[in-house]
Amino acid sequence: MAKNKDGMLESTGKIKLTTSDYVIRGIGYFFITIFAIVSILPFLIILGTSFETEENIISKGVTLIPREFTTAAYELVIKGGSIWQSYCLTIVMTAIGTTIGLFICAMTGYALQRKDFPFRNGISFFVYFTSLFQAGLAPYYLLMTQTYHLNNSYFAVLLPLMVSSWLIILMKNFAKSIPHELTESGKIDGAGDFKIFTSIILPMLKPGLATVGLFLALGYWNEWYQSSLFLQNKQVLPLQYSLYKIINEAQSLKNSVASQYVTVDSLPSESLKMATAMMATGPIIFLYPFVQRYFIGGITVGAVKG
Amino acid sequence: MTTINPRKPAPYTMKGALAKKLFNSKTLILMCVPAIIYFIAFSYAPLPGIYVAFVNYNYRKGIFGSPFVGLKNFDFVAKSGQLWTLTKNTILFNLAFILLDNLLAVTVAILLKEIQSKSFRKVSQTMMFLPYFISQVLVGLLVFSLLNSDTGFLNVVLKALGAELWQKTGYNSVVYFAAIMGIDDSIIEASMIDGANGWQKIRYIILPSLKPTVVILLLFALGGIVKGDFGLFWNLVGRNPILYKKVDIIEMYVYRATVSDFNFSTASAVGLYQSLIGFILVLTVNAIVKKIEPDYSLF
Question: Is residue B189 less than 8 Å (CB to CB) from chain A?
């Protein structure tokens, strides 16, 4: 669009691009190209290296294009079997957590922006306060393990990621853009507030649902923190946390004195790490280009008013 | 057809008014109940546990049965100098992150605007957004595999900065890019008709119009300056003592004290200290924002 305008005006002779315009445009193309490449290159190198033989990685290092192409690492990961269980666990948790979380956020977000809801300010503050002041990790850890007994329970991962004040406020901002007259017309037709919400508001709230849902889903898919706190003795682990374990076990072995006496072959395999990383991240890489506009929408709606 | 009965505004007492309010909005209240229960269970219920910071925690006696020691836990971390080191590291890293993050994000946004080809812009924006979607675990792996394993102080600092900028710039630039796209094209055209060159256009039109966004985002970032990015540091440094002795931040200390050492009292003391400073900072920042740009204040 800008191009057309510029072009049109240029032809009438009103706007002349100066040398500095061209220089800045040149810098723009150059810098953005470099930055875009730098953004994906590390990822491509891990991808390339995951198809490289173990010996080559150790003797020659990582590579963009495999010197000797092999799928051995992937076969090993798949044969190991536990990756599929991790996949299932992660998918199930993402699906359940996102669905329930989305429903809670949508109901609350809608209710809190209703101007005729007398308790909206009180409840909004109650929700918002949780992001202003937190108890800290130790009391939270004690509560989860001693009081709720959620140690080594998948609920310790599923529940804490489900709702956040930020997501509720984001949803509230989306719900605000739906004209209040729709709620009013529902009321005149005699529908209750919940009926209005499910049959009139929810269909209108699709962009908000998509945005908040995707933030939730990304949070579940990339979860490793709660798992590291509470899933110490579980056999089947969420994808990112099993990747975390593979990386850190190799790392701690490397750092320990023992590694000097152990031959390279017996160390956890480098290519295995790369292949696991690719499998754990793969679905996101394929999906994100199609859904990134929702994230961009969410960032611009929710950025300043966090 | 139903006939609408105009309700007579009957004189009622305060108690009656509240009951009426509650009754009229019962469905909306019920719709908020799941979230309220959720926040009580996971955000408010841990609050009494802060008391653990003031006791010598004993597993068998529980938080409220353990002997009260006053501010001893705070004393311990403060006197050893650890608290100061942690605070300093956390703040300095965050300062560097905030300044560089925003500088780079603004630069990227401005240069992105210079890209005339729409498809080029779209593709490059998508590429720059990729790191945001990647888990911090993978970021840790990228740093381990692609960069040297030197454990020198400067090296670790640079890795942390690099990882931060790599992962966040695409995300951060979105807000600025949106602000730039929001500038009325006719203003820019008028300036060009008046003979403004490319640099002047950026200096006198784009940058000033970004200023409110920059100021607000910087202020809120400063409000969170005592909160470190645990995921980033933990995946770069983790439990490696050679590294964490150099770049320890509050979150990592609290995590180790909680999960590895089970030293809940010290962990909670440091955590409470951080929460309180953070709380005061956010309130201060919000008051400032309220003065300069009331629309953007948080509450």
Answer: yes
Note whether A33 and A88 are same-domain residues. no
> Cβ of A190 and B2 within 8 Å?
yes
Residue written as token pair 């100061």: B84
What residues of A are in contact with residue B230 (Cβ under 8 Å)? 225
CB contact (8 A) between residue A139 and residue B133:
no
The model's pLDDT over A97-120, given as tens digits with 9 standing for 90+, comes to 999 999 999 999 999 999 889 998
pTM of the model: 0.89
Q: What is the pLDDT of residue B48?
A: 94
Residues A85 and A68 in one domain: no
Whether residue A207 is found in the same domain as residue A159: yes
Q: Are A247 and B144 contacting, i.e. CB atoms less than 8 angstroms apart?
A: yes
Q: Which of A14, A45, A72 is the C-terminal boundary of a domain?
A: A72
Phi, psi of A52 (to 5 degrees): -95, 155
Q: How confident is the model at residue A56 (pLDDT cuts 50, 70, 90)?
A: confident
Which positions in chain B touch A21 (Cβ < 8 Å)? 197-198, 201
B37: contact with A, CB 8 A cutoff: no
Dihedral pair phi/psi, residue A46, rounded to 5°: -60, -40
* Residue B65 touches partner A, C-beta closer than 8 Å: no
Residues A17 and A96 in one domain: no
In whole angstroms, give the CA distance from residue A208 to residue B26. 25
| Residues A195 and A95 reside in one and the same domain | yes
Cβ-based contacts of A292 with chain B (< 8 Å): 126, 129
Residue A120 belongs to some domain of the structure: yes
A12 in a structural domain: yes
Would A36 be classed as within a structural domain?
A: yes
Q: Assign B68 to helix, strand or coil.
A: strand
ipTM score above 0.90: no
Q: Among A72, A95, A111, which residue terminates a domain?
A: A72
- CB proximity B129 to A under 8 Å: yes
Question: Do A216 and A150 lie in a common domain?
Answer: yes
DSSP string, B223-262: HTTT---HHHHHHHTTT-HHHHHHH--HHHHHHIIIIIS-
Q: Domain range spanning residue A48?
A: 2-72
Beta-carbon pairs below 8 A across chains A and B = 303
Instruction: Identify the closest residue of chain A to B135 by CA–CA distance.
Output: A222
Interface of B with A in 73-102 (CB under 8 A): none
Residue of A72, A83, A34, A23 whose CA lies nearest to A50: A72
Which residue segments constitute the domains of chain B, with CATH numbers given?
A: 73-263 (1.10.3720.10)
Verify that A98 and A211 share a domain, yes or no.
yes
Residues of chain A with Cβ-Cβ distance to B46 below 8 Å are 134-136, 139-140, 142-143
Measured CA to CA, the distance from residue A107 to residue B32 in angstroms comes to: 7
